[in-house]
Write a structure and sequence with these properties.
Order of helices and strands: HHH
Shape: globular
Largest sheet: none
Number of strands: 0
Helix content: 40-55%
Strand content: under 5%
Distance between the termini: 12 Å
Length: 91
């Protein structure tokens, strides 16, 4: 996890790359999608493409599911991730 914790966008943008194409999501090539997913799973944050002040909601949701499945956070919530980030910074 990184030390600067960005607040996530409250909802996915209509053109979020993590939204299905049928729902209006932007379609990226498989290589780019894999690259983004891998850095999300390593703890990096994906910036929202419509609001660079926030983390991407779709990307954050992937992180929450992965980190909870790995036992890194207790539950897949923004609050649990924030707490884990704070604990990491204290160590």
């Amino acid at each position: 996890m990184i030390s600067h914790f960005l607040e996530p966008n409250p909802a996915q943008c209509k053109s979020c790359i993590f939204r299905s194409p049928e729902d209006g999501g932007l379609v990226l090539g498989d290589d780019r999608t894999t690259e983004i997913t891998e850095y999300l799973c390593s703890g990096k944050q994906h910036i929202c493409h419509t609001n660079p002040e926030l983390a991407c909601r779709g990307g954050r949701d992937i992180q929450l599911r992965v980190f909870a499945a790995l036992g890194m956070i207790d539950q897949p919530t923004d609050e649990a991730l924030w707490l884990a980030n704070q604990e990491f910074l204290r160590s």
